[in-house]
Fold each of these.
Amino acid sequence: MSLNKPVAKWNGRRVWIVGASSGIGAALARALIARGARVALSARNAQALALIAAGGAAQQTLLLPLDVTRAEEIAAAFARINSTWSGLDLAVLLAGSHQPVRAWDLDAAQARALVETNLIGVLNASAVLAPAFCRDATGAIAVVSSVAGYRGLPSSLVYGATKAALINFAETLYLDLAPRGIGVFLINPGFVKTPLTDKNEFKMPALISAEDAAEAMIKGFEAGKFEIHFPRRFTFWLKLLRLLPYRIYFPLIHKLTGL
């Protein structure tokens, strides 16, 4: 049984991608534009957004550069979407950053910046979207977290904490919004080749392209799933690891990662 209303078609559907300038966000934007969706593109890099928008018809895309840590910019962008398209069907909250951190290198200022982008940015957007969607009794929010939020992992000291928070947030958001007819999707990617994962200094198992990640997300939306996780050949094992007691989990992770 689908936990969300399946997306039957993309042609003409109004989608806002926050974090669309590179990686999965850019790949998702291109894929949805190709399917005929109207796509609003947001990120800090306006030039990159313009290049992506060039792949669609003139009236098909909307450029809305913004910084997710500034709530007023998100509110202004959403207002422009409403005035231009008279509403929004799906918001995909992808904006995020990644910095490998070990405990002995922890810096409070850098940690705070990561939390602001990864977690507070989603809260800023959701605080604008959720009340509006409830008022109109329509719309859906997709929160992009990561399998790094399933359990603690070496070098993911702050990043993993933000993603674990997003998983909990999306679950609770669903409990509140689903009874009101609002869709909530939780996206948990494994390793996807992007400028962010290029920072990793270890071998990333089951690494997939941003284009493959975008297609997996689209299939999940079309199926109406709550959690969309991929690639399953990797995420299946991480879900099993979540069930292990700490006395087994901790030494196993050290052995598997070499960290």
Amino acid sequence: MTDDDLRAAAEKFAELDDDEQRLPAPAPPRLPSAREYLKAARWGFNHMVEQRLLDAAFVFHIVSVVTLARAVPIVLNARDRKRSPAHEAVIGEWWQHSSPAKTPVMHFLKRVRDIALHEGAPRLLAIRSSLRHGEGSNEEVISRDYEADLIEDDGSHHDVLAKLREALDWLEAELAQIEAKLPPPE
């Protein structure tokens, strides 16, 4: 590469940097506290699944994810509700019909958190497995599975990962509905 090529590349990068500076700043989140807690819960969940965590790391992540997810409506009510009169009205209305005491999703999150925290997760089971084909240097991993189940007192199993995905998606949908009722940020 010649000096002229390097200068041209530097000028192109400078133009791109100027373009980024001209972009309008993104609008501030309408529900910043609730969004941050949900973002952290999703990150913890995704990290747990991607890393296929077991044992103490699994317990740590389950407790963290469900605690953060349970906190979403609480910070929505305690912090985000105080942002404006419109927030107060919209979140107050939501709280009347969706408070944690009335919501099955929140009961599930509390139950899983309590089991993991108070019982050290003996009723939560995480298993990872892989299907392989071939031997030695010819071995190929065909699939990697990761499952986490909640074991009930009667011995039945429930897919806790699917239920956590549903809970996080439910929280996302609830926040989106609330944001849709709020006036645009100033």
Amino acid sequence: MTRSTTAQPEGPSGYREAIDLEFAAATKQYAGTDAPAVDALSLKVGAGEICVLVGPSGCGKTTAMRMVNRMIDITSGDILVGGRSVKNRDVDDLRREIGYVIQQIGLFPHRTIGDNIATVPKLLGWDKRRVEARVEELLDLIGLPQDMRTRYPAQLSGGQRQRVALMRALVLDPSVLLFDEPLGALDPMIRAKLQDELAQLFRTLEKSVLFVTHDLAEAAFVADEVVLLREGQVVQRGTAMDLVERPAEPFVTEFVRAQRVFAR
């Protein structure tokens, strides 16, 4: 279901509307391998939708996601962001349109939280007032106290550091958000809380989201649509309960059974 694209109020960074993300027979085959890591993947994420890729290790879900922002080059086929081929885009411009959050948070330990969030805006020449306004706006959006901007990463919990990584990805107000196992390193209680926060945030922001996880329960919590991959190809797509109650083939049933908590 496509979300509303009602115009958002003007903020310090301006606002970008959600846009479509489409895989058009996108293929990635690494040199020296017999089979593609992603094999002619065709998939559309409508503007404002949340699509979660699931599947066993090595199924191609992270490779597929990283082709979107050209962290990995496409071997054949194409990926369209807002109807434009990523292959024809300037890489820096493309990545400013796409927020990217990974499990390995990667904050600069010698910089304050405020400076971590402001890294790219400062490189782009934003003035001090605009930078400070955007940092303040994001801290409010994520629900962290304003005085946290003066702390350093080592003074934060794992969950707080992941929230800062999210703010850093949101700072340029991207149209598309990519999440690669962002909660995998967190303990179960913090992970559950952040799943809830992310689900609410996605619905507030109305951005197009591609989310990668191995956890079907997590996918069920945040997704509009779940896409199960095997050997770089789509096996089944739908809701998480579609996979549970209407498996397309025995592999789907095996995958669901392996998700023991979800199966219960």
Amino acid sequence: MITIDQRGCGLGKTTQRIYKRIQFNIQNNINTLIVVPGLKLQEQYGNDIDVPMDIINSKIYNKYNYKFKSTVKALIDSMRNNENIIIITHKTFTLLPKDNGYKNNYDLIIDEALEEVVKLSKITYKKSTWDNNLQLEKLFTFEDSVSQSIIELTDSDSDWTRINVILDPGQSILNDSESFLNLVDNNYMTYVTGHGWKVLSQMKEGEARIINVLDPHLVVGWHDVLIAAAAFKYTKMYYWLKTYNIKSVILTDFQEHMGNIRIHTDKTIGTKTINQTIIYSNSLIKKYPEIVTNYHTYINQHRTGRIITVRNNHQDKSLPDEEVLTHNVHGLNDYQDITNVNLESALNMDPHIESFYKQVWLMNMDKYEQQRMILHFHSSYLFYQVIMRTGLRSMNYANEVINVFIPDFSIASSVLDYFDGDSIEILEMNLLNGVKQQPKSTGRPIGTTKDNKMTKAEKQKKYRDNKKNNP
């Protein structure tokens, strides 16, 4: 059975649920495999649990004595040797063969939601990129004949169809290319578009985009499974399990956090007008660097001391007395005296991954709900985790003001989903003040073409509807 503890950050998932589960397993002679996001949490478990455990990570197995031994090989060896407690990282877990023969001997505990459940690969074909005799289309089959007919009739690069590997490619160019290896990775399910399929099967010049989805059977077949992740229903992992019908039970639900929180944001950024959407992105920053200058000036005027910052690709734009964090903040509990957070990462999702989510995982939602969940997937969930590194996590929190700075209003508004509305105050920035020219729309509205003709994706949908109504 898969059970989930999705209590909020700092409310006892690790100490009250996971540690007690491990102690129960020890007393009842049950083996435990613990999966954590990174080395920081591995160290924390090692310090907190005073029992022998096998810690496996790349840092250890990159040492000279283990240079020919991968973390996956080390894990399989430990499970074969019936080690009582093993701790690995999320990355090693995604590489573990889903049918490894030892799963039923272990209670699986996953601390924090897996991030690497979906990845995008790109294969570019030019003349003589691979041998004409390879016949890549013979490596795969489709779920049904309708799916095959649809994908072969369209050159769409936005509608996704699942293909299944039916042959082992053996020793070929596939073994020399990471992208090709992703195509035939048994731990992942593969989706392609019509355009991508033509590049692969007809050797049409261009770029094939491939979506790889972790096979959910990786979490099936264990003695038991516990997932501990705050606000789990806002994660990619939740929709991964839901889409592929992996049943789970919520043990402890998420409740919105209380606190004295001021969110500073710009309502003109991240909102859609008739002709354009201004998104806080690297391209916007590059084109209008004064926006960042305005943003940092505002922060310095409204902050109340030290500040923790998450940013990407413009590290030179720094603030005085700041602590810059990476995008993996799990296990960082040293900032509980801080009451200021700068969330200026411009985390814009690849449009092909976004189209996959909307079409395959979120198809039963309306457009607003889809976009809201996309925001959680690519930024809001991370930002929530960062905010909860501050004084809000402290046992001594006495309702001090927590200043949260987020330039993009759409992201700021989705962050509100994690906090009680009565504890939030929104203060508006004006980052476009002094910017001579606002960015203009460079393309047509989504879903239209020149002269308002149907897009290829719309034609494909019409084909499916006709097929359904006229079997």
